[in-house]
Design goal:
Structural class: alpha/beta
Number of helices: 12
Radius of gyration: 19 Å
Oligomer: single chain
Order of helices and strands: EHHEHEHEHEHEHEHHEEHEHEH
Mean pLDDT: 88
Shape: globular
CATH architecture: Alpha-Beta Barrel
Number of strands: 11
Helix content: 25-40%
CATH class: Alpha Beta
Low-confidence stretches: 333-363
CATH topology: TIM Barrel
Number of domains: 1
Largest sheet: 11 strands, mixed
């Protein structure tokens, strides 16, 4: 159960049901599709006509591209519970993180284009498997497509809370479309410094955009609340990936969280950074290693010193133990890029049984 967990008062219903009953969900679908015609749905503001299947940074046109979907048992305990988190991994990404561990998915777009009907069937299949929630991974560039599929899924009986599992490079326009629809926002606040964001994600405006986005997420849903079993129902769960040499400004991010969102904010400090993608001994050598146990403990100290107290302790202790026994490895110049992606093309539209995954979400 989350530390100092807040319990949800009364009977829970996913947020989108009220908007569906009022007809607002149908209106949001139309508004989202209109925005695809001159796309400013993320801070890149590419202004391409995605209705005509034109693409730019995010690589996604009229329809979403999905790499995989399955019952995920590697997420935070408050998401996976006992029956798994129903993850849908969207291909492509609006960031260009040079250390991304899912390079083939986020940089190369491995996966399959799916229409709204098939995406809705994926949501319903995950519900039928018994998953606790629908976990939309890397959804920033697919908000209109998600809304279009959600409407179909709700009409056919979807009743699970939605998790918006994001890199936090979201536009306020997109978040306005999701207001009253998303139950759990899970932003990964990556970088404090514009220079580091430019260097490692090719997005110097990332820190400012992320701060605006995370404030809006918190305004919509507040701090994380759970049921009696500790499974998340509503609120913000904030992730932060600790990197070598404090390359991302962990202390500053923790202080901002405490000041802007409050000490009740639920945080998961992640220790699974390892050199991948474009990081080698020649390129980005300063982050060409795993983090040390001392560096992860410093991140935990920064969390505590900021006045925060809702840390994912189970994951934190596991992370501390794992980094304590791992060598601080690096990648040679000749290292292969990325790691294998999970191929959606080999999976049926509605899986007959839950899938497992040994990895985490893209960094």
């Amino acid at each position: 159960m989350p530390d100092s967990a807040c319990k949800y008062p009364g009977e829970f219903h996913p947020a989108y049901l009220e908007l569906w009953h009022s007809g607002e969900l149908t209106r949001r679908v139309g508004l989202g599709l209109e925005k695809l015609a001159d796309c400013t749905l993320c801070p890149r503001n590419c202004h391409v006509n995605r209705i005509e299947d034109k693409t730019k940074t995010c690589g996604t046109g009229r329809h979403a591209v999905v790499s995989s979907y399955f019952a995920h048992f590697g997420e935070e305990r408050c998401l996976r519970g006992t029956r798994g988190s129903g993850t849908i991994f969207f291909s492509w990404c609006n960031l260009r993180c040079v250390f991304c561990q899912n390079y083939e998915i986020s940089w190369l777009g491995e996966g399959r284009t799916v229409g709204p009907q098939e995406l809705a069937e994926m949501m319903l299949a995950l519900q039928a498997q018994g998953c606790h929630n629908i976990n939309l991974v890397t959804p920033e560039h697919a908000v209109p497509q998600i809304l279009e599929a959600l409407l179909l899924a709700v009409e056919r009986g979807l009743r699970l809370p939605l998790v918006y599992n994001t890199n936090a490079y979201d536009s306020l326009d997109s978040l306005a479309l999701m207001d009253g629809i998303v139950d759990i926002y899970m932003p990964d606040f990556k970088f404090w410094s514009p220079e580091k964001a430019r260097l490692y994600a090719k997005a110097p405006d990332y820190p400012e955009a992320a701060r605006h986005a995370i404030r809006e997420m918190h305004r919509q849903v507040g701090p994380l609340v759970t049921d009696e079993q500790g499974v998340a129902l509503r609120g913000v769960l904030l992730r932060h990936l600790v990197m070598p040499g404090d390359a991302v400004g962990t202390s500053e991010i923790m202080l901002w969280i405490a000041h802007e969102l409050g000490p009740e904010t639920y945080v998961n400090l992640m220790a699974q950074y390892r050199p991948a993608c474009h990081v080698t001994a020649k390129q980005y050598p300063e982050i060409n290693r795993c983090i040390s146990a001392e560096e992860f403990q410093q991140a935990r100290d920064a969390f505590r010193d900021a006045g925060l107290h809702r840390l994912d302790h189970e994951q934190s202790e596991m992370n501390l133990r794992s980094v304590a026994y791992l060598p601080v490895v690096s990648r040679p110049i000749s290292a292969d890029v990325g790691r294998p992606a999970i191929d959606l093309a080999a999976q049926p539209t509605i899986p007959p049984k839950p899938y497992s995954c040994c990895g985490r979400r893209p960094s």
